[in-house]
């Protein structure tokens, strides 16, 4: 429905060939009979080619009986094993014993084990040219279509489910493999790919404190390496708009800077702990000790508004520690400044971008955990951390989510996908561990230079942390 000039209108073509029109405030209601679209000669020829003269012998045969009216003979799948991100062809075979009554439609679902990874691939039979309402007794129907598993499919199999539905009901399954009220047509093996390696970044120590003004003009920022461009959080693939970050540290603070390309910089939420993730923001999550339990979440909007919270465990907030508390009521001592290259909240012009500069007191990485990591960190200490950005330009239908170490699911709180930061000295170096002198030799002296640049996603991290 849509509101136009003070009226509300709805137009709907019913399956029985009636066109129904309702106009509120104009007080007009009614249905008029419409002639059903007739299939073209080409449509009829295409359908005829897919009505078989005898029962096929599909590789995945089920012979499921749907209410004595329709038999699902089975299907063929190509290729097997399937590969995420590439076309998978499904060829279904149905046998009609008696014509289904009006209103029945075909459904096809895909899912992973334990009801995970649901995908709806409903379609009209025979390329939408032979709807169930036209099925006749004696028909043997070949119905072919293609779909793709998401590139980040996380399971080594997927299930295919089929059936017929009408309104709020599904046609009962009298016999054959099933899961609840769906025919379990097949379980297909998948060639799974190893997920991208967790990101790793060497955080250099700055000899002088950073002034938090959003300008990134201190010498420390000029020598700090970039994280590299953030990527699509679900696929791990290159994504726009460009976002990158840098980090520094001293004995008081962890410094984090985001540089965001943005043609429409805006943010209207002004109260602390507002739902900044519904508009535009930069975000940091830190699980300093890497235990996959307690972590902090920090967000900064283009207008400088801050959101911060402590989560004692996955997606549980301060009230789970003490019912007298409220979610998001823990406040860090985070300082943040934003510099906008353009005009904030002027939605009709074209901006260039915005920069966020943060200083987080080191003790705050532990949130409300009294047994967190020791601060300041020693050279070589490692913390778990991830960074994200939400962008929502004026003409977009939905937000764009970008991340440093992609979680590969629609959830930023996937702690086992957090990257790793390593604390190094001003030159990006780590001290060499002292060794016992060998016979006739003195102990090795000097420093081992660490790589100054973060590892690309395509290379494995040194150690993959245990999953939570």
Quickly list its features.
single chain; 468 residues; mainly beta; Immunoglobulin-like; 3 domains; twelve-stranded mixed beta sheet; six-stranded antiparallel beta sheet; 3 helices; 38% strand; disordered N terminus; disordered C terminus
Overview of the structural elements:
It is a single chain. The chain is mainly beta. The protein has 3 domains: 2-33; 41-189, Immunoglobulin-like (Sandwich), CATH 2.60.40.10; 200-449, Immunoglobulin-like (Sandwich), CATH 2.60.40. It is built from 3 helices and 29 strands. Strands 16, 17, 18, 19, 20, 21, 22, 23, 24, 25, 26 and 27 form a 12-stranded mixed beta sheet that branches. A hairpin with a 4-residue loop joins strand 2 and strand 3. The longest helix has 9 residues, at 41-49. The chain is elongated. The two termini are 46 Å apart. The model is unreliable at 1-36 and 438-468 (pLDDT under 50).
Write a short abstract of this structure.
Helix content is 4%, strand content 38%. The chain is mainly beta and 468 residues long. The protein folds into 3 domains: 32 residues; 149 residues, Immunoglobulin-like; 250 residues, Immunoglobulin-like.
Give the secondary structure arrangement, pairings included:
Layout: E1 2-4, E2 7-13, E3 18-24, E4 28-33, H1 41-49, E5 60-66, E6 70-78, E7 87-96, E8 105-111, E9 119-120, H2 125-128, E10 140-148, E11 157-166, E12 169-170, E13 173-175, E14 178-179, E15 182-189, E16 200-205, H3 219-223, E17 231-232, E18 243-249, E19 253-261, E20 281-287, E21 295-300, E22 306-311, E23 335-341, E24 353-361, E25 382-391, E26 400-403, E27 419-423, E28 429-431, E29 447-449
Parallel strand pairs: 16-18, 16-27
Antiparallel strand pairs: 1-2, 2-3, 3-4, 5-6, 5-13, 6-7, 7-10, 8-9, 8-11, 11-12, 11-15, 14-15, 17-26, 18-19, 19-24, 20-21, 20-25, 21-22, 23-24, 25-26, 25-27, 28-29
